[in-house]
DNA sequence: TCATTTTCTGAACACCATTCAGTATGTTTG
DNA sequence: CAAACATACTGAATGGTGTTCAGAAAATGA
């Protein structure tokens, strides 16, 4: 995980890992089917990390304010852990193998959002009706912001150092847009 | 471009390309600095393609309805051309070299959205004030939807074949959210 | 101590992007 | 026409990649 986060998934080779742990490359294949399976292990941790972040930084009683916290926490998480975010949501590799992995892991974070939104909508605090659609939409805004920035597609907007502020404003405005 | 779109950027090797055009691998390096530079050429085309799509499919007189068309066109474009979309907005490679390339190309499509939003806001038709922030937000929703789907992160939501409808609803609802 | 199981090795395979000395072709000049 | 030059191309070599597998080493049990 340390190497994946420092150098990125692609640049971390099985040989580099083998060197670092002082084993031969072949040994790794006795424990993991292939390089992707190493990724799953890291992803499992990463999804847990995000959920933990939600649980500690997005626990306001008011579901609308909590929704705002969730959005901001997500964006901040992506900005603070770019390589980790990459592994979790941008990299191509996995998702083909164990569908359960994501229902159990990434799913928990999504459920956190879902539960919050459900409470908001039940209390008639938002301008939307469909919980699932709204959750998808909200996740998409947050993911869009983080991933476009991570892939340097927002260079035309402002300088690098300005981006956190801008992304924060963007997600803030979006949540405000949801509120009745 | 044909090979990039059929097999993806990563799986298309310089050797494969050399074979296909019946030249030696070395020859390619006489015309392109490296593999990434081949990508830029394709990206240039791709950005043009998206802009062309906007121009033909999002030209309603009413700026709000045009905004809706832009959103739906973008999502449809991403769903219809997954590999192309990947090259344009998800792949890691470029953005480091020629910043102008993107101001001139990807920028044109972004300007199309920007202009439309400006008209909407000038006519006081939307619930937002800041054009740039709203453009970023709108692009993020659309990109989020497309890229999460492309990377199979939405498997828990519905079956593959259901996704186009859902993504369409999501972007539709978002634009409706913007309207006063 | 010896047999058995478990763990590990590292060379080999088939790829990859990239480089570069050398060759072939085309063009221009004396 | 021939020699000089310019352009175009080659393909082997370099140093990387993920992955496999026969065989060696270490640990365990009798």
Annotation keywords:
elongated, DNA-binding, mainly alpha, homodimer, 180 residues
Considering residues with a beta carbon less than 8 A from a beta carbon on another chain, report the largest interface and each chain's count: A-B, 44 and 44 residues
Based on Cα principal axes, name the global outline of chain A: elongated
What are the secondary-structure elements of chain A, in order, as H or E?
HHHHHHHHHH
For the largest beta-sheet of chain A, the strand count, sense and barrel status come to:
none
How many DSSP helices of chain A? Answer: 10
State the end-to-end CA separation of chain A: 43 Å
Strand composition percent of chain A: under 5%
Mean pLDDT of chain A: 92
**Poorly predicted parts of chain A:** none
Oligomer: homodimer
Gyration radius of chain A, to the nearest Å? 18 Å
Strand runs of chain A, count: 0
Q: What structural class do helix, strand and pairing data of chain A support?
A: mainly alpha
Percent of residues in helices of chain A comes to over 70%
Can you walk me through this structure?
The structure is a homodimer of 180-residue chains. Chain A has 180 residues and is mostly helical. Chain A has helices at residues 2-7, 14-21, 25-31, 35-57, 63-80, 82-90, 99-104, 106-122, 131-150, 163-178. Chain A starts with a helix and ends with a helix. The model of chain A has no long low-confidence stretch (mean pLDDT 92). Chain A binds chain B through residues 10, 89-92, 95-96, 99, 102-103, 106-107, 110, 127-128, 130, 132-134, 136-137, 139-145, 147-148, 151-157, 166, 169-170, 173-174, 177-178, and chain B through 10, 89-92, 95-96, 99, 102-103, 106-107, 110, 127-128, 130, 132-134, 136-137, 139-145, 147-148, 151-157, 166, 169-170, 173-174, 177-178. Chain A binds a DNA duplex (30 and 30 nucleotides) through residues 13-15, 23-27, 29-30, 34-35.
């Amino acid at each position: 995980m340390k190497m994946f986060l420092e150098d990125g998934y692609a640049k971390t080779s099985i040989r580099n890992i083998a060197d670092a742990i002082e084993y031969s490359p072949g040994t790794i294949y006795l424990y993991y089917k292939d390089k992707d399976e190493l990724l799953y292990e890291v992803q499992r941790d990463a999804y847990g990390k995000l959920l933990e972040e939600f649980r500690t930084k997005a626990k306001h009683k008011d579901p609308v304010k909590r929704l705002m916290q969730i959005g901001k926490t997500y964006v901040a998480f992506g900005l603070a852990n770019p390589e980790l975010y990459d592994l979790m949501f941008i990299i191509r590799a996995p998702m083909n193998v164990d569908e359960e992995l994501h229902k159990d892991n990434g799913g928990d974070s999504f459920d956190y959002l879902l539960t919050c939104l459900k409470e908001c909508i039940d209390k008639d605090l938002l301008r939307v009706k469909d919980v699932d659609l709204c959750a998808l939409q909200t996740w998409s805004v947050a993911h869009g912001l983080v991933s476009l920035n991570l892939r340097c597609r927002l260079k035309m907007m402002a300088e690098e150092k300005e981006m956190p502020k801008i992304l924060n404003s963007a997600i803030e405005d979006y949540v405000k847009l949801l509120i009745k």
